[in-house]
Amino acid sequence: MAEYEACAMGITMAIKHQVSRLKVFGDLVLMIYQLYGEWETRDAKLVPYNVHIMALKEHFEEISFHYVPRDENQMVDALATLSAMLQANRGKEMTIHVRQQTKMAHCQQVGEVEIDGQPWYHDIREYLKKGVYPPEAIENDKRSLRRLAADFLISRAILYKKSANSTLLHCEAQEIMEEAHEVAFGTHANGHALAHKILQAGYYWSKMESDYCQHKRRCMKC
């Protein structure tokens, strides 16, 4: 039902802005094909939503519904996360400017280790394991954490991220550094040299070189 509500709200906003031609994109196959008229709406809870949206369609010269796979529907996920983080005043319109990044995504991603010394996924892991939030978290922070945690799971004490194709992804930065430093390359080289070797092996994260320098300082053999 949440998807139907979001769809109805979006179409209503388009009507208020006097849009005459509209393309609606969604990653829920059932809803898109029901609104497109390919599938019949049988769920009694969804019928009123379907009827309402069909009535809204009359306000447009042209309106169409298109299915987009979830992993290609990144803008919706980004806006949903943003809405959970912002605390806007009721009844007040807010303009959101969207700008294209000037750098590749991997150049601006979250580092492996944060200022508090904990890995970036620490809060997610603690929430999944114990159901607890960071001490300083406000309600918006808690809501954002729940949304993030929905994409992760813990299996045999290992945190995995669920991808769109159901593949489980595991963060291996620490293991890669240890292997590069002590096993595969067989040398205790400096941070620059080992970072270069890790790059050649096909791995990258934004704080790779500084993380490796910290790892090297903790090595008893160096």
Question: How does this structure look, described?
Answer:
This protein has 222 residues and is mainly alpha-helical. It has 3 domains: 67 residues, 2-Layer Sandwich (Nucleotidyltransferase, domain 5); 65 residues, no CATH class; 45 residues. 43% of the residues lie in helices and 10% in strands. The chain is built from 9 helices and 5 strands; from the N terminus they run αβααβαααβββααα. Strands 3-4-5 form a 3-stranded antiparallel β-sheet, with helices on one face. β4 and β5 form a beta hairpin. The chain starts with a helix and ends in a 5-residue tail after the last helix. 11% of the residues are buried.
Task: Say how many strands there are.
Answer: 5
Highest-level CATH class of the largest domain: Alpha Beta
Helicity range of the residues? 40-55%
Taken in chain order, the helices and strands follow as HEHHEHHHEEEHHH
Content-based structural category: mainly alpha
Overall geometry: elongated
Number of helices: 9
Task: Just name the CATH architecture of the largest domain.
Answer: 2-Layer Sandwich
Tell me, rounded to a whole number, the average pLDDT: 76
Low-confidence stretches: 105-113
Rg from alpha-carbon coordinates: 23 Å
Enumerate the strands of the largest sheet in spatial order, edge to edge or round the barrel: 3-4-5
Amino-to-carboxy terminus distance:
59 Å
- How does the major sheet shape up? 3 strands, antiparallel
- Beta content comes to 5-15%
Q: Tell me the domain tally.
A: 3
CATH topology of the largest domain: Nucleotidyltransferase, domain 5
State the fourth-level CATH superfamily of the largest domain: Ribonuclease H-like superfamily/Ribonuclease H
